[in-house]
Predict the 3D structure of the following.
Amino acid sequence: MKRVGVFVCHCGTNIAKTVDVEQVAKVAGDLPNVVFSTDYTYMCSEPGQDLLKKATAEHNLDRCVVACCTPRLHEPTFRKAFESAGGNPYLLEIANIREQCAWVHNDREKATAKAHDLVRGAVAKVRRNFPLSTSTIPITSKALVIGAGIAGMQAAIDIADAGYKVVLLDREPTIGGKMVQLDKTFPTLDCSA
Ligand code: SF4
């Protein structure tokens, strides 16, 4: 059976003043596959991360949802913490109840209801996630630019200026694209060719 843990962050008062975080955690505890649910003042702090790691080990969690701020801020933090406790980092989802909820609403009751929905959605997603792994693939530091119009030529020049070999390819026998079909260019009346 999948074992999901839910962690609802207060962000001090950033979230807690608008969203009833204790209630969100309590309701999340009844969602399918959720075996552990709690709230905490600052989830990204060291004690907050330790809480996630400890709960993962003690409750044998294989999936996590952290209801907190935007994933752009702390998704890597929590994935790392979950991984260090033995979890697959891609089986951790963020429910953004700060920027997408607490910060854009004033009505506590409605904001709390929305936070419930966001957490429910994240739990539903994490239950369906598959574990992923990262791999490293050797690459050749060389670029192929297809289309030798103005944009393609400029891209090829920029890449070459950055120190990489470039192959510029076009279906026509000459480069220049639409530009070579023009006579003069505005406003300098330079010859387009
Ligand atoms: S995890 Fe995000 S929402 Fe929670 S305390 Fe840290 S910054 Fe605030």
